[in-house]
Write a structure and sequence with these properties.
By secondary structure, the protein is mainly β. It has four helices and 40 strands. It has a single domain, classed as Maltoporin, Chain A, CATH 2.40.170.20.
């Protein structure tokens, strides 16, 4: 589903021709991805469906959260439970919300303290240089949960010299956002960092003139790279995010939100330390890295503590990659070892509550990857074997290939994926509502895709067909005798298949047209032999079209996004409902007062459409925002 949409032209400072492509599905050979392989690879050399959203787009749209940009990507459905900062789920190609992995500067930031999803509603866009979205199973490279795909965030870092940038913006619903960032790159040291914040009063989700459900977020991010010698590079990345969202409860008798003074404080601290040794002129590189993530979610009612969940993830990674040439072809072999430990703690206001618990699990993984590049056809294969102390060992594979034929490009990929049950699925407990299932088995996926693209350097189009099957899907259950909800592995299969079409055209100097369309058929079979039922919150049809202009004096953009009808569940009556289709129109622009100062403006949902991504939770209506942006 495309839940928001706008396409803004690039800023006057954006110079690379490829930056005119808002979603770079048709790969510029000079563009590199760091998520489609365990080592950097040119986009033109991978058969994986991958979209990039680059800095020109991020600055041009000036939207507050990364989830707003993910809504631009084909095959991605975004479901937001009400206002800014409310729980937001991202589903890639019909997979579940916890079936994707999110990286920020190489750190896996999925929340081990809750549902295993990354709290995408907490990720501010300030300081982000590039957003990559890989579609299809990537477990062979990146492990459990990468069934639907991978979201990779790269922050801004100067290549040479110094930079300083900042912005502030305010508008409807008492919303204020701002940030400052910068960096310096010399011969031996590169330093960069950002500090950003957002505050909004929001609106009453329940719609009964109750308290307004607002949101605050402060995020700090820093990166230090030291090239200690021609062969040795040391890297340190640190990040901290602290946000509070206020929300209403749900009236299960009436089937609507109920005005309540509820809030959740979400905090996450992440650290990555790495040493890379390059030998044989860079043909053989070995990396050793340690990554740590600490996350906690604290729930309160009227300021009084109710419960919290704390999670930790520690990852030790050793990787060695060698490159050699034979008969005009380049070969790259990579071997890696990942040792991951996760811990979970649940604490309730009632010291005697059964939900009070501590859990731990560890997984050791062996990974191998081979990539072949010939200057024409390219191919790769990866294999991963996971040894888990909670579940049976698992092996996943991924293979991809590319065949260029002039301006035409054929690409295909096959992959298997796995998703371990979350701590909440296994051990979650809420008296009178939910009880976990410690006997769950990991979910498994098998997917194949094939596509054809055309790119003449100025205009492009790509069509990709995909088909995926999920087994052991973890589904909700309800015991009418005890009135308790739970989870179990489905005995049937889930099928997700469809087609993604994306294209862009350069109509004139500075004038671009972008469009995408996704058809998705996602169905679930909970019990083998029974009928398939359509998966909820996944539109069958979704698309967007946008026109943007970038000039020396100003940038302008107008875009519309159409989200088709989706199914959902009325949890008061436990019956299926249909969420109506809607179209969002966004208008945006920037006036370049000087070469270093912009005045920005944006109108979201310009037609004031009724947007409901989750049953009974309406999105914001029309909003307007203005601000300034500085570049030094």
């Amino acid at each position: 589903m495309l839940s928001l949409i706008a396409l803004a032209a690039q800023t006057a400072a954006a110079a690379a021709p490829t930056d005119d492509i808002i979603i770079a599905d048709l790969r510029d050979p000079a563009t590199i991805t760091v998520a489609a392989s365990r080592t950097p690879v040119a986009l033109s050399e991978t058969g994986i469906s991958l979209s990039q959203i680059r800095l020109g787009t991020i600055e041009g749209l000036s939207l507050p959260l990364v989830k707003d940009y993910l809504a631009l990507v084909p095959g991605v459905a975004v479901a937001q439970t009400g206002p800014l900062g409310a729980q937001t789920q991202v589903r890639i190609r019909g997979a579940e919300a916890n079936h994707s992995i999110t990286f920020i500067d190489g750190i896996e930031v999925n929340d081990p303290a809750s549902s295993g999803e990354f709290r995408i509603d907490t990720l501010l866009s300030h300081g982000v240089d590039r957003i990559e979205v890989l579609r299809g199973p990537q477990s062979a490279l990146w492990g459990s949960q990468a069934i639907g795909g991978v979201i990779n965030i790269v922050t801004r870092t100067p290549l040479l010299g110094s930079e300083l940038y900042g912005e502030i913006q305010g508008g409807s619903l008492g919303t204020v956002r701002g940030g400052i960032g910068g960096g310096w790159a010399g011969k031996a040291v590169t330093l960069s960092g950002q500090l950003s914040g957002l505050s909004t009063d929001g609106y009453d989700i329940a719609g009964v003139n109750g308290d307004r459900d607002g949101y605050e977020n402060v995020t700090a991010h820093g990166r230090l790279e030291w090239r200690a010698s021609p062969d040795l590079t040391l890297l340190l990345v640190a990040r901290h995010q602290d946000s509070t969202s206020r929300f209403d409860g749900f009236d299960f008798d009436a089937g609507v939100p109920r005005d309540e003074p509820l809030s959740t404080r979400s905090r996450q601290t992440a650290l990555r330390a790495e040493a890379a040794l390059a030998l044989l002129g860079g043909d053989w590189t070995t990396r050793a890295s340690v990554m740590a993530v600490r996350a906690d979610n604290i729930n309160r009612r009227a300021g009084a503590f109710r419960n919290r969940s704390d999670g930790e993830r520690d990852l030790l990674r050793l990787q060695s990659s060698g490159r050699f040439d034979t008969l005009g072809a380049e070969h790259r072999l990579t071997a890696a070892l990942d040792v991951e430990t996760e811990r979970f703690e649940s604490i309730d206001a009632n010291a005697q509550a059964l939900s009070n618990q501590r859990q731990r699990r560890r997984q050791t993984s062996l990974i191998g990857e081979y990539r072949l590049t010939t200057g024409g056809p390219s191919a790769g294969i990866a294999v991963r074997h996971d040894m888990n102390d909670r579940f049976a060992d698992a092996t996943t594979v991924r293979a991809d290939a590319v065949l260029p034929l002039g301006d035409v490009r054929l690409h295909a990929a096959f992959g298997t994926g796995i998703a371990d049950p979350t701590f909440f699925d296994q051990f979650g407990f809420f008296p009178g509502f939910f009880i976990g299932n410690p006997n769950l088995r990991p979910e498994r996926s098998r997917s194949v895709e094939a596509g054809i693209g055309w790119n003449d350097g100025q205009n492009s189009i790509d069509v990709t067909l995909f088909d995926a099957t999920l087994t052991n899907e973890i589904v909700s259950t309800f015991d009418f005798a005890t009135s308790l909800s739970g989870v179990a592995n489905a005995s049937g299969r889930s099928k997700r298949r469809g087609v993604e079409v994306s294209g862009n055209a350069s109509l004139a100097d500075g004038l671009t047209l972008n469009a995408s369309y996704t058809y998705l058929d996602a169905n679930q079979q909970q019990v083998v032999g029974t009928a398939f039922v359509r998966e909820v919150r996944r539109p069958r049809h979704a698309g967007s079209i946008a026109l943007g202009y970038a000039g020396e004096l100003f940038d302008l953009a107008a875009a519309a996004a159409i989200t088709g009808a989706r199914g959902d569940t009325d949890f008061a009556r436990f019956v299926p409902v249909t969420l109506p289709a809607y179209t969002l129109v966004t208008l945006s622009g920037a006036w370049h007062i000087t070469s270093k100062l912009d005045l920005t403006a944006r109108i979201e949902n310009a037609l004031d459409a009724t947007q409901v991504d989750v049953f009974a939770y309406r999105g914001p209506g029309i909003t307007a925002h203005v601000g300034i942006r500085v570049r030094l």
